[in-house]
Amino acid sequence: MRRSILVIVACGVCTMGAAAAEAQTAAASPSQQNAAQPAPPAASVAVVPKGVDTPPDYVIGPDDILSIVFWRDNDMSHDVAVRPDGKISLPLINEVQASGLTPEQLRVSLTAAANKFVEDPAVTVVVKAINSRKVFITGQVTKPGPYNLSGPTTVLQLIATAGGVVEYAKSDRIMVMRVENGKTIGRRFNYKDVSEGKNLQQNLELKPGDTIVVP
Asked: How does strand 211-214 pair with strand 134-139?
């Protein structure tokens, strides 16, 4: 009889201990309960890089460097160079035409292509380097060769960038070669006249693809 009473008392103590522990858990503050839970994984957010300033009439061309950023998808975000055929390559989407489009037009095109693989894709196109807008100067200048046309540039400014004409150059017979409507045309540029403030209409603003020939 005595042993039965001891067993009953012991069971009662265990029950009271379990109830007390349960009460302590219920009384714990929400912050303490949350602290015990593992934190959810951080979202993978792509950072939009800083780009270069683009001219108002800028369209993408071969050799330009673009940063394609998919918001919250680092795996699809890449820096790409526009290939000579005018296309870029990206994961999942594969090849996309870029040359001849503005950055906004390319963004729309990429969004449409990504819709097949990503729900509500948010795409940003950043121009990191403009290498397609080139002009050329050849002949009797200090530094002939191709030059990037990163902003408004006149014939006189490009000659100055190329180090100026050399001593024996025929500076009154300089030609600006330009393709218009599929035909190459030449415009005369008299370096001496323009330098002296005469016939300033000769000092054209250059366009991508122009070639200056200094005989």
From this structure: parallel
Q: Which residues pair with residue 134 across a beta bridge?
A: 148
Residue 154, domain extent = 134-214
SS3 label, residue 94:
strand
Token representation of residue 20: 């007390």
Predicted pLDDT at 163: 97
Distance of CA 13 to the CA centre of its chain: 71
Q: What is the CATH number of the domain that holds 202?
A: 3.10.560.10
Q: Residue 105 sits in a domain of what CATH number?
A: 3.30.1950.10
Asked whether residue 128 carries a pLDDT value surpassing 80, the answer given is: yes
For 35-49, 99-113, 154-168, which range has the lowest pLDDT when averaged over its residues?
Answer: 35-49
Tokens in use for 75?
A: 């795996």
- The residues, any chain, with a CB within 8 Å of residue 209's CB and separated by 6 or more, are 134, 135, 178, 179
What is the average pLDDT score of the chain?
83
Tell whether 147 is covered by a domain.
Answer: yes
Record the tokens describing residue 166, joined without a space. Answer: 């050399």
Give yes or no: residues 125 and 153 share one domain: no
Same domain, 148 and 170: yes
pTM of the model: 0.65
Q: What is the mean pLDDT of residues 103-107?
A: 97
**Cβ-based neighbours of 158, under 8 Å, separated by 6 or more:** 135, 137, 147, 206, 212
Domain count across the chain: 3
Rg of the Cα trace of the chain?
35
Distances (CA, A) of 129 to 41, 106, 136, 185, 214: 35, 16, 18, 30, 29
